[in-house]
Design a protein that fits this description.
This protein is of the alpha+beta class and 451 residues long. Helix content is 43%, strand content 18%. A six-stranded mixed sheet has the order 1-2-6-3-5-4, with helices on both faces. A five-stranded mixed sheet has the order 7-11-8-10-9, sandwiched between helices. The chain starts with a helix and ends in a 9-residue tail after the last strand.
């Protein structure tokens, strides 16, 4: 075991035992500084001198949530095209440059953001500055390359969603849970929309959202603000400020009854995916929901897994998740894979029995303390990595929250009581706020049209 892993393990143990005070943990905010360039670019620097490395990240406040009907998938496709070359760098040269200098890179698109990053030794920071400032403004979109990459994304969709039964259920459930809000659309886009996207659509998207006043640069690691800021100004300062992108104003109407969707696909076993409407980041109930997620669905000792997989032995696997780091209210979802020979409705009812027990009987002192300690441990250990420090800030930024949210995060988790857990469970885990997706397996060669 190396030294750093040992420290992390020891820290985790101390937190679980309740012996480690968060005041002894260096907060991200203590080493964080914020600046703005004249063109509106937000610059966040986080000093962490444990290792001579840096992470450089550019977060654009644009994702699936900004797409309109008929144009889904644009955010993700643009992410792909950002690696296809600029006026200065040929196709693939950005990635080759990063690799040649010993770094690694990637990008990711969500409903709320599109982000790009490189991890380097600290003396290579200028590589990131040059690459990212260039493709913020000088992207070259060749029409032929656009069509080729559009085909790549369509194939990605076939493999990850269309040919995957459980992913298809998840997609259909979200499309049913949200009637008007963009959360109903998959980030990768609907196949028909992808087929009809045009070169001009991507150009318009890039020019609208890839502007400095819609972006945040985050540099974390063995740096100082005074050293880095002049360099960032040098590379990014001359990029013109763009028009303010159009705001997302769509609000999901209140759900007034359970919704259900069935997906018939070639598969081995049934699958259940049930989601409940829950609040997003900034809502006072988010912390109780996070504790509940740990109690119900965190690992094989969780209530859901223990009940369905161990005790009743009706499911092959079971779990759930709550992600409160979203701009708008989303879902707290649960899932289970039905065991051979077991009725799907028995497993589904088994999920609801676990929830009803929580609503009626609450949780024990040991359960809630263990859950809060595990949430705290995860939060503390994530700060050990400069990459995840920057990721945390980026996600909070994309959710339009003030960074002070982090200062009160652990205190708010610790304040969650057994009464809070019971109240919140009864408020949100109700049938009228539930949407359920069920996979009905078809045998190989069986025609869905006949069912």
């Amino acid at each position: 075991m190396n030294f750093r892993k040992y420290i992390r393990l020891a820290l985790f143990t101390l937190v679980l035992l309740g012996l480690f005070s968060s005041t002894a943990i260096s907060s991200i905010l203590e080493d964080l500084k914020i600046d703005y360039l004249d063109n509106g670019l937000k610059v966040v620097t986080i000093e962490d001198h444990k290792d001579p490395v840096i992470t450089f990240q550019v977060w654009y406040r644009v994702g699936g949530i900004n797409e309109i009907t008929g144009k889904t998938g644009l955010a993700h496709l643009t992410e792909h095209m950002m690696f296809k070359g600029t006026k200065k760098y040929d196709k693939g040269e950005v990635s080759r440059t990063v690799a040649r200098h010993g770094g690694n890179e990637n990008a990711f698109t969500s409903q709320e953001y599109t982000a790009y990053f490189q991890n380097f030794a600290k003396e290579k920071l200028h590589i990131s500055l040059e690459l990212e400032s260039d493709r913020m403004v000088n992207l070259v979109v060749d029409p032929k390359e656009f069509l080729l990459e559009r085909d790549v994304v369509m194939e990605e969709r076939r493999q990850r969603t269309d040919d995957d039964p459980t992913s298809s259920v998840v997609e259909e459930m979200y499309a049913s849970a949200f009637k008007v809000h963009p959360y109903r659309n998959p980030v990768i886009g609907w196949m028909n929309d992808l087929e009809n996207l045009q070169y001009e659509d991507l150009i318009d998207w890039y020019k609208t959202y890839y502007v400095p006043n819609n972006a945040t640069v985050i540099v974390a690691g063995d740096i100082t603000r005074d050293e880095v800021l002049p360099e960032i100004k040098k590379y990014f300062g001359s990029i013109p400020k763009g028009k303010e992108p159009p705001p997302v104003t769509i609000k999901e109407p209140k759900q007034r009854g359970e919704r259900r969707v069935w997906v018939k696909k070639e598969a081995q076993l049934p699958f259940i995916f049930a989601g409940y409407k829950t609040p997003n980041i900034g809502h006072p109930d988010e912390f109780a929901l996070e504790v509940i997620a740990n109690i119900l669905s965190s690992g094989k000792s969780s209530r859901l897994y223990k009940s369905l997989v161990y005790d009743k032995q009706t499911a092959i696997y079971a779990g759930g998740s709550y992600d409160g780091l979203s701009r708008d209210p989303g879902l707290f979802y649960f899932y289970a894979g039905v065991k051979p020979g077991v009725k799907t409705e028995d497993v589904e009812n088994g999920i609801y029995e676990v929830l009803e027990k929580l609503k009626k009987e609450g949780v024990t002192d040991l359960e809630i303390e263990k859950a809060k300690n595990q949430v705290e441990a995860h939060h503390v250990m994530s700060q050990d990595s400069i990459f995840y420090q920057a990721m945390t800030i980026g996600r909070i930024e994309s959710a339009r929250m003030d960074y002070s949210y982090l200062d009160s995060y652990l205190d708010n988790v610790r304040k969650v009581t057994k009464e809070d857990v019971m109240r919140v469970a009864n408020q949100y885990f109700v049938q009228d706020k539930r949407t359920v997706g069920i996979l009905i397996p078809l045998k190989k060669g069986e025609n869905n049209e006949k069912n």
